[in-house]
Amino acid sequence: MSTSFSRARRRNMGIAATAVAFVVFILPFLFTFLMAVKTKKEAALFLFSWPSEWHFWANLTEVIKARNYMLLLAYFNSTVITVAAVAGLVVFGAMVGYVLQRRPSGWNRVIYAGVLMGLMVPPAVVPTIWVLQGLGLFKTIHGMVLIQVAYGLAFSVLLYRSFIGTIPRDLDEAAIIDGAKPLAIFFKVILPLLKPVTVTLIVVQSIAIFNDFTNPLYYLPGKDNVTVQLTLFNFQSQFQSQFNLLFMNILLVTIPPLLVFIFFNRQIVAGMTAGAVKG
Amino acid sequence: MTASSSSVVLKNLAKSFGAVDIIKGIDLVIEPGEFCVFVGPSGCGKSTLLRLISGLEEATSGTIEIAGRVVTDAEPSERGIAMVFQSYALYPHLTVRQNIGFGLSLAKRPKAEIEAKVQAAASVLQLGPLLDRKPKALSGGQRQRVAIGRAMVRDPAVFLLDEPLSNLDAALRAQMRIELTDLHKKLGATMIYVTHDQVEAMTMADKIVVLNAGRIEQVGSPMELYNHPVSPFVAGFIGSPKMNLITGPAAAALGCTTYGIRPEHLDLSTTEGQWQGRIRHVERLGAESVLYLQTEAMGELVIRLPGQDCPAPGSIAFVTPRAGRSFRF
Amino acid sequence: MTRRRSPYPYWFVLPAAVVFVTLFLVPTVASLWFSLTRWDLFEAHFIGLDNYRQFFKEPFLVQGLVNTLIYAVLTSGTKSVLGLLLAVLLTSGILWQGFLRSVVFFPVLVSTIGVGITFAALMHPTKGAINVALAYVGIDGPAWLSDPGLALYSVAFIDLWKGVGLATLIYIAGLAAISPDYYEAARIDGATRVQQFWRVTVPLVRPATVTVVTLSLIGGLRSFDIIWATTKGGPGFASDVLASVIYKQYQAGFYGLATAGNVILFALIAIIILPLTWWFNKREVDL
Predict the structure, then answer these.
(1) C192-227 pLDDT, tens per residue?
(2) What ipTM does the predicted assembly reach?
(3) Which chain C residue shows the shortest CA-CA distance from A206?
(4) Are C243 and C223 in contact (CB under 8 A)?
(5) Which of residues 1-20 of C touch B (CB under 8 A)?
């Protein structure tokens, strides 16, 4: 459809769209930033104004020091959970997608049923807590990691399955003739070739897990294993009168996805639109 | 590079996928050092037969012996075979050196041994300067040679080649035919080569196995198949242009169900001959010309003449089969 | 004859299967039982369908159910329509198109809690930037998040703001898959721009529509964190949805009731999504 608008009209529409996008999408972020660098008193006014005093570093150090450096612990926990869960999603998901694509059998229907459930069914939270307690995993980082793996597997399997379909079987067979055993075929031939989709999966799932609020709320309560989103949520009630610190916290939580977005834009788009065309 | 050459013996080998019989009981002996070509139209089972020998497919019944050892149930890597795939199947993430040495490194051979073997293969195949490249950076012919190199370092008893030239352009294909024949001589290894191209079969094979619908039609040297085809199928498949095959009342009048005569074995005359007809079309190739003659008695006949002098389309001509060159099936 | 082992062994599925079955499937199946009990995580007393009866009798629980439906349909519908329009705009070659795509998409990647807190401030009835701006043009802005009649819709708007970028992105991919030949053929046939949109774009972008509608409906029905970060279901129960009701019951220690809520949510999603998927697939065969 790109050909029939005139050049001038495309320019004018672009300028108009940018103006609207600025008000709708950029101003809220600008507001967050301005709140984060204001003084406590000024922030409490909620005004959309330039800060009279620039309190960036003061607010930053204060929010980090708050409640005995809780934010640092939260970042540490969230990072551990994200890295471990994503690693699990990559390896486990790719293994399932591989067998699913390469070995047609009656079991595939069972696996697909599981995938469909994983995408659709809301987790039964209280029974999950009951299971986690039974396994001694409730309120633990390990438990949280496994939960994120369990909840993200369906997406991971689907993504890998469709990509593995594009890798010629001849490669597996060449490796078989070269004497590779199943594990060697998978880890030395297939997994390296999955790199593009693995990068996509890592980026998309990292953001999802890092931003996850609901699951840590249920499965990781308590002060010892706080995550970034939980800390932010809890600060909301603690910093009732310190909106500058609250918004500094929001700013800090927003920066990691922003960096990932800048560097991995293409992979994010690939991951988010997987399946959009085929339906 | 001395590959030990070995025999391959297939006994009553069969393969079905579900209810479909792809290979229907094949008995075949391939002698040590032989260049054996499986040829046939697509769907005849030639690739499946090769995959049965490689172990990538499991036989439904029958046995496979390689170098005197029954390997019917052995893993592909334990059969003493190496395979060159139609797509080459080079590992895209590995360099040429790593591709060729992949099997050896899986077998945990010492680094020095791997390097020596890779170098040896590379020098035979003139891949030396390309060893650190990835497959993406190679031409079709170079990829082909890497695939062969990967097969060579396994010191296989038998090389299996699955339509290895079909992804190359015509000129390169002709060149690779000669290179492969030279390589076969140099290595002295047993090679089994699958193709649908009868030219490749004729030019390279010691022994051709013509397959049709999962069965062997005929086994023999290229000239045996050309001179003494046992069936209309083989007669029509070997030789280009295709042999004229006449069926129906015209063949019955000559005392057979199918009468065959090769285009190069029909003598043309403008004055007299056994069959009269009108020239419908002429293809001039320079060194030779191909005529399509519409006859009353035999239907359309294809005639191959040396040189460029031949009657114009539309004119009347006569043809006579050369004595002793016709076939009655 | 001994069968050789496949190069694709089933045990490759095992690590994933163990995690999935233990932490997803077992709780899901167990929820069917626990929803029929009065339960304190240690002992469960069978009480039949009492939990379900309560769910459909208590007005605030019923409201949660209704709100869930309103919220899901509203967010899914607006995301689909706006997403398609934005996608068409952002593939028409306008100035700064790439930048605009990024701007529309970025909120998808941002912390929901952060977005919730920011909008709670922007929507503050007296100090919030939205109402301050409205006051400039002489409009007395409402209490977006604390007016019981408005809260649910305000939260749905925030959800739309955050999620429309994903719908746009999916539609852009869908539009890219339509061959330009169709538009050229339509133009030669004399179709106007609007006709092209209805006769070419809308039917041919269907796979993307299926994805957007399905994803956003499931997301909308399960929605929790954006509501919890802004209104906590309030004021009163005005913006409560099933997911927030479940959390409240869980917090209050009514584990059986919370689990019954979970089962109802599951059933609601199944009742809506399965026929929808079936219908989408059926239409696909007709094409």
Answers:
(1) 889 999 998 999 998 889 989 999 999 999 999 999
(2) 0.89
(3) C109
(4) yes
(5) 1-4
